[in-house]
Backbone:
């Protein structure tokens, strides 16, 4: 009973990604004829990189970059190549390489349903166990389809308990302690995950009163969620408050709600969340289960159903496109087998050093935390060597698209930019491949990092979702990335 379906809801994933998200460039080359081949020329304006950096007005931020010839590895341009800066979500490119080597391209995450006794008359003579395998991509519709298959096979309940096991990965309340409590991209981590460990909060004003709801919605299933409660408080700030417990209790400021709206909120006990949703879906299909109980190990039993993720390269491709932090942490922890992000990040860093000769200091796998450090030289070296050795990263990188001076994508542009971006407050990075058309054209590998860690650290945690000046700074940093790529494509490709 294997269910495999690609569930990437654009709105859900976009919310999971920011601010360590998948950003594009603000300025890119235009196609022109050169040497009989379609190529690119730089935009009008200064060609000197130092002038472009000065014009970006990034304040005290450091800017580091390296440009390599992809075939020879020769350095074509560099600025502060060995300066260690936060990678933000560019770290996910390295995590992808690590997972591909340690887990293999055929790896799939599996979520299983076990019965500890025989099935008689539709009733399991024992316990039913929901056993997670660390799948970060599991969605409500997949869980609903699994339940429907069990019901069709005749399952109606159990004489014993409903148990759930979420110990395939360490249970972590959040990825990064330096992020606000309410942001969905700072997900909890567990061996059981659902909807990127977020619940859907919706509100509307009716007859002068607030009506709120929390659910685990999919496209075809809409199970309510009781373990998360949101109350509207008469205030303007703070935006949210959070209190952990068996019921995760939130309050939201009425002054920020308008007439109605919705957003995804993080769930800090994903195992209990998945168990509740599974039980709700089961009841809707006529399967009666007791309230779920967490167990520390998987009881012996017969598998009666499962749902699997897509193969690892597809999981990673979507992770790189939507920059889902939960996916990065789950694949990294699965690959390392460690019991904490700190230990897992160190194991990955050691692997990078041994495999590519690059000195990285990783404290997680997503880049969401602000303590990780990489260098432009190291990142460019990793990307170039990985492609020479055909390790499988380049084919799953997102084509960022070349853009005109107004920031619009130039459809059909002959030059491709296959890259991973990353953003934290006052930190921005982009690394990847510049691929011109034609078999004889010179392919380039680049890494660009801009960062002002001190300014980032000075922002109070409660304000880090949208700090003052952050949006403009990020926009200018991205524009600088595009201008540098513009320059390089025109001069070297």
Residues:
């Amino acid at each position: 009973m294997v269910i495999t379906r690609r569930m990437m809801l654009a709105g859900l994933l976009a919310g999971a990604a920011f601010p360590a998200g998948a950003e594009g460039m603000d300025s890119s080359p235009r196609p022109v004829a050169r040497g009989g081949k379609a190529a690119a020329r730089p935009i009008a304006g200064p060609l000197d990189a130092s002038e472009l950096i000065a014009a970006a007005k990034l304040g005290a931020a450091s800017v580091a970059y390296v440009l390599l010839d992809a075939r020879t590895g020769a350095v074509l341009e560099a600025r502060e190549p060995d300066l260690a800066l936060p990678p933000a979500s560019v770290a996910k490119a390295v995590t992808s390489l690590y997972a591909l080597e340690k887990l293999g391209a055929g790896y799939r995450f599996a979520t299983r349903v076990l019965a500890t006794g025989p099935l008689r008359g539709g009733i399991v003579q024992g316990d039913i166990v929901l056993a997670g395998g660390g799948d970060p991509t599991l969605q409500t519709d997949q869980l609903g389809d699994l339940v429907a298959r069990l019901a069709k096979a005749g399952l109606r309940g159990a004489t014993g308990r409903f148990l759930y096991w979420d110990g395939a990965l360490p249970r972590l309340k959040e990825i990064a302690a330096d992020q606000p409590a309410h942001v969905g991209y700072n997900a909890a981590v567990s061996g059981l995950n659902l909807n990127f460990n977020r619940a859907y909060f919706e509100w509307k004003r009716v007859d002068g009163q607030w009506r709120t709801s929390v659910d685990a919605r999919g496209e075809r299933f809409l199970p309510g969620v009781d373990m998360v409660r949101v109350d509207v408080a008469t205030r303007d700030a703070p935006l949210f408050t959070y209190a952990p417990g068996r019921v995760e209790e939130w309050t939201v400021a009425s002054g920020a709600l308008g007439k109605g709206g919705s957003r995804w909120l993080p769930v800090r006990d994903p195992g209990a969340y998945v168990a509740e949703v599974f039980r709700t879906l089961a009841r809707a299909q006529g399967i009666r289960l007791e309230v779920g109980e967490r167990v520390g190990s998987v009881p012996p039993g017969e598998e009666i159903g499962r749902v699997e993720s897509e193969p690892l390269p597809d999981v990673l491709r979507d992770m790189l496109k939507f920059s889902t932090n939960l996916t990065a942490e789950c694949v990294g922890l699965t690959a390392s087998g460690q019991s904490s992000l700190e230990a897992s990040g160190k194991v990955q860093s050691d692997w990078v050093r041994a495999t590519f000769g690059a000195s990285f200091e990783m404290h997680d796998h997503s880049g969401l935390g602000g303590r990780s450090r990489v260098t432009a030289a190291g990142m460019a070296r990793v990307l170039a060597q990985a492609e020479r050795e055909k390790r499988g990263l380049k084919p799953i990188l997102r084509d960022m698209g070349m853009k005109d001076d107004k920031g619009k994508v130039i459809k059909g542009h002959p030059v491709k930019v296959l890259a991973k971006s990353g953003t934290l407050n006052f930190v921005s990075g982009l690394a990847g491949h510049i691929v011109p058309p034609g078999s004889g054209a010179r392919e380039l590998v680049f890494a660009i990092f801009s960062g002002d860690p001190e300014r980032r650290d000075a922002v109070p945690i409660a304000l880090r979702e949208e700090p003052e000046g952050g949006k403009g700074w990020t926009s200018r940093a991205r524009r600088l990335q595009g201008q540098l790529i513009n320059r390089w494509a025109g001069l070297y490709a």
